[in-house]
Specification:
Layout: H1 2-9, H2 22-94, H3 100-110, H4 112-115, E1 122-129, H5 133-146, E2 162-170, H6 188-200, E3 204-205, E4 209-210, E5 221-230, E6 236-245, H7 246-253, E7 261-267, E8 276-279, E9 291-298, E10 301-309, H8 311-314, H9 320-327, H10 332-374, E11 379-383, E12 388-391, H11 393-399, H12 403-406, H13 411-414, H14 417-433, E13 437-443, E14 450-460, E15 466-475, H15 477-521, H16 523-539, H17 546-577, E16 582-586, H18 587-601, E17 607-611, E18 616-620, H19 621-638, E19 645-654, E20 657-664, H20 696-706, E21 711-716, E22 720-725, H21 729-732
Parallel strand pairs: 17-19
Antiparallel strand pairs: 1-2, 1-6, 3-5, 4-5, 5-6, 7-8, 7-10, 9-10, 11-12, 11-15, 13-14, 14-15, 16-18, 19-20, 20-22, 21-22
Helix pairs in contact: 2-9, 2-10, 15-17, 16-17, 17-20, 18-19, 19-20
């Protein structure tokens, strides 16, 4: 058997004595080498795979870190914008009236061009009604005309119940001048944002919009941040606002740590081209290795942030280590060398990256710390046990306590028992409810007890658990003093108004009694004058010449005119003090009745009447009939000398308002005297042309005014006149 094995193996395998030959030893000795090589290759493959996974995880961690840096930078910048608007809003709460110079000084103090270049302008939009518009134009017109703006002009033009229009903007130059007078309340997107800001009393931002100043140059995605402004009495006076172009905002946020990562910003929680605010790279191209989508809430509105890694991040140095391990895996020593080298290199890179991230984190913390320290509002942070973790410089100034004394201590250890109990109860409410709280409290300060508006909000960990709270207190002592003084002045004013009202009511009663007495006492002498003049003319006609009879006729005509004047004055007094009963009134029927009565007075006269049907209103039927009778009577009287006289009554819509009119083609009048139409005893024609007392239109004006409306006239000499009026009975006498 040995011989067969030798014959089979040959000289290369074994010698004559049966021991392995040198060639066999070499062949046998290769097995450990192959085993080592195989083991090394397996080890190399295992290490290559592990290092590849580590590199992938490192790239993913770097990607997430840079995405978080973008998100945090965006949140910090938007928080700074909110603080700017809150500061601007505070100007109005601290001042009787913020002037344009104060607004300009506040804008200059912010140095927006250097610190916040994305904010295009800082503006204030005044909230006012249609009745306040003339006053505002008188106040702003001269100043704006000095800048070549031609006065305070609203855009879009037209009368509306409410306006929210820009009156201040800084910088006050260039395209920003176009914003003056723009009524943002008429634009639904801006109006909804302002309403949301007013409801929450916090800054609010619009959805994606294109600014008016960009309409001509090309659409650029932008938004506007609004903050309601209140006067020192707490009443809303308008909105401070800051328009921001998204491209400028992103350029302001980009730092070295944001390189290697692409991101898109969408308005709302649903990404789409219509909602796209910003995209760092065009769509398509190479598919990114890592992606992430987050929804953040800024200014009360949700934004979607989509992140994607870029090739520069995917090709980080981590990916080279596995290839180096594969190339060097054939030799055990070289393998160990490159393996240790790769691990060491990776470790150093990880440490360098950690140091970079730590430095950037420290920079952000320093920025936040500087922002908190520079705040003019006392700020503090406590843990869940009520111990101070941090206070700012303003807190030290107000309380008179150094932060070294305060940090690590509770309110019971820092303040007297009653004050400490107030603070502890306010803290407990926030910690237990997990909700922000704002209260007015009296707290100690270095100058004694003062009134503060204390805002507290909870601090939560990633699990949503409350770990502490942050508080900000605003000194409102002066505001409270102003409010108390204002209440005192209001009470004094109410007392004076009541006294004055009583005096006026007494005077009115005396005037009414005097009017009644005069109207009755004068009638008896007038009847005597009229009666005796008739007897004199009848009984002694033969003894009177033509001149005497003319004098008697003039005496009788004067007494009749004076009687008519007394009747009209009595009617004017009656419509002023008569109690009103509101109900639906058929104006078409009243106009037809009055027209029939006028035709009965002059049966031979021919007038073409045009009375619109189904014209109704709400008001006092008797007073409205009196007003129509005077207007139609005037039209009848002043068209008497016109061939083909026409009188019309109808209804029309003017600027969204229902307007009634009476039109004739009679004598008309010169518009330069239109201001005298509705005054008592004011006449634009001689008595010998058209008789009358000059009271009729004054009665119309009183009746329309009592119905909450207005009346005006238009005319041209020889071409007729049109009198228009409105009725707003419900506005003049609202329901209980």
């Amino acid at each position: 058997m040995a011989t067969r094995e030798a014959g089979q193996g040959g000289p290369a395998d074994a010698g004559a004595d049966g021991r392995p030959s040198a060639g066999g030893i070499r062949a046998w000795g290769m097995w450990p080498a192959w085993l080592v090589l195989g083991a090394c290759l397996l080890l190399t493959l295992g290490v290559w795979r592990w290092v590849g996974e580590q590199a992938l995880q490192a790239r993913e961690a770097e990607f997430l870190t840079r995405a978080a840096a973008v998100r945090e930078a965006l949140q910090v910048r938007m928080a700074a914008y909110e603080q700017i608007l809150k500061g601007a809003s505070g100007l109005f709460a601290a001042s009787e009236q913020v002037s344009r110079d104060e607004w300009r000084n506040y804008h200059r103090s912010l140095q927006l061009g250097r610190n916040f270049p994305a904010i295009l302008a800082l503006a204030f939009a005044r909230d006012f009604t249609r009745a306040e518009l003339p006053v505002l134009r008188r106040e702003l017109g001269p100043e704006l005309r000095r800048y070549g703006l031609g006065g305070f002009n609203l855009r879009p033009p037209g009368e509306r119940p409410r306006y929210v229009a820009n009156i201040y903007t800084e910088p006050f130059e260039g395209v920003h001048l176009k914003a003056i007078g723009f009524d943002m309340w008429q634009e639904p997107t801006r109006r909804e944002t302002m309403q949301r800001a007013l409801a929450t009393r916090q800054p609010a931002i619009t959805p994606k919009i294109v600014l008016n100043i960009d309409q001509e140059s090309g659409p650029v995605a932008a938004f506007i941040m609004y903050m309601p402004a209140y006067d020192h009495g707490g009443r809303p006076v308008g909105y401070v606002l800051a328009p921001v172009r998204m491209t400028a905002l992103v350029a302001d946020l980009l730092t070295p740590v944001t390189r290697g990562i692409g991101f898109s910003i969408y308005d709302g929680s649903e990404p789409g081209e219509n909602a796209l605010f910003y995209r760092s790279r065009p769509p398509g191209g190479e598919r990114p290795q890592f992606t992430r989508s987050e929804i953040v809430t800024l200014g009360g509105r949700q934004w979607t942030l989509d992140f994607a890694s870029e090739p520069t991040l995917d090709a980080m140095g981590f990916s080279r280590t596995p290839h180096v391990i594969l190339v060097a895996g054939g030799l055990f020593s070289v393998l160990l060398f490159w393996l240790v080298r790769g691990i060491a290199t990776g470790h150093r890179r990880a440490l360098a990256l950690a140091r970079t991230m730590t430095a950037e984190l420290h920079e952000k913390q320093r920025f936040l710390t500087d922002l908190i320290e520079a705040s003019s509002t006392p700020i503090f942070v406590k843990d869940r046990g009520g111990r101070m973790l941090m206070v700012n410089r303003k807190w030290e100034e107000v309380t008179g306590l150094a932060r070294q004394e305060a940090v690590g201590k509770t309110s019971s250890e820092l303040f007297a028992a009653p004050d400490a109990q107030t603070i502890i109860e306010a803290d407990r409410e926030v910690l237990e409810s997990g909700l922000a709280s704002a209260k007015e409290v009296v707290l100690p300060s270095i100058t004694g007890p003062r009134d503060f508006l204390s805002l507290r909000f909870p601090l939560k960990n990633d699990a949503g658990e409350v770990t502490g709270l942050c508080g900000m207190t605003t000194d409102i002592t002066e505001r409270k003093q102003h409010e108390a003084e204002l209440q005192r002045l209001n009470r004094d004013l109410e007392r004076r108004v009541a006294e004055r009202t009583a005096e006026l009511q007494a005077a009115v009663r005396e005037l009414e009694a005097f009017s009644y007495s005069v109207s009755h006492d004068l009638r008896a002498p007038l009847r005597a004058i009229n009666g005796f003049s008739q007897l004199l003319e009848h009984d002694y006609a033969a003894g009177l010449d033509e001149t005497a009879r003319g004098y008697l006729a003039r005496v009788r005509a004067g007494s009749v005119k004076m009687g008519d004047l007394i009747d009209d004055l009595h009617e004017l007094s009656r419509v002023t003090r008569q109690a009103m009963r509101f109900k639906p009134v058929d104006l078409s029927r009243l106009a037809a009745e009055i027209a029939a009565e006028l035709e009965e007075t002059e049966p031979g006269r021919r007038v073409a009447w045009s009375i619109a049907s189904d014209v109704t209103a709400t008001g006092d039927a008797g007073l409205i009939r009196s007003a129509l009778a005077n207007l139609l009577g005037n039209a009848w009287k002043y068209s008497a000398r016109r061939e083909g006289a026409c009188i019309a009554f109808g209804i029309e819509a003017m600027e969204g308002e229902t307007v009634y009119f009476v039109r004739d083609n009679g004598a008309g009048f010169d518009m330069q005297f239109a201001g005298k139409l509705f005054g008592a005893f004011q006449r634009l024609h001689r008595p010998d042309e058209f008789p009358g007392t000059g009271i009729g239109l004054a009665i119309v004006a009183r009746i329309v005014t009592r119905h909450g409306g207005r009346v005006w006239g238009e005319g041209r000499p020889g071409e007729g006149a049109t009198f228009r009026f409105t009725l707003h009975a419900e506005a003049a006498h609202p329901k209980a």
